[in-house]
Amino acid sequence: MRRHAHDPDPTGTEVARLVGWSLRQVQAVLQREGTTPSDLVREARLERARHLLGGAGTITEIARASGFRSIDAFEKAFRRRHGRTPTDFRRS
Known about the structure:
By secondary structure, this protein is mostly helical. Helices cover 64% and strands 0% of the residues. It contains six helices and no strands. It is elongated and about 40 Å long. The two termini are 28 Å apart.
């Protein structure tokens, strides 16, 4: 999933294809773990963004390179996950 985090359109079906399982198999395993394909996609994107924040590029460029469709969606997800904005994270 990390290799495809930049893709703005991954779906549960795509996650299943990447691991060679059916969508239902992926959903069942993830449900037992208390997560979803969407959660995995978001976490992979946020991990990529966190890494990119250590380098060059604007926040908007990093959001796009991490697969987020909008800066607002990126900032909201990042703040929810890390407790601070991407700008604040970069400053520390």
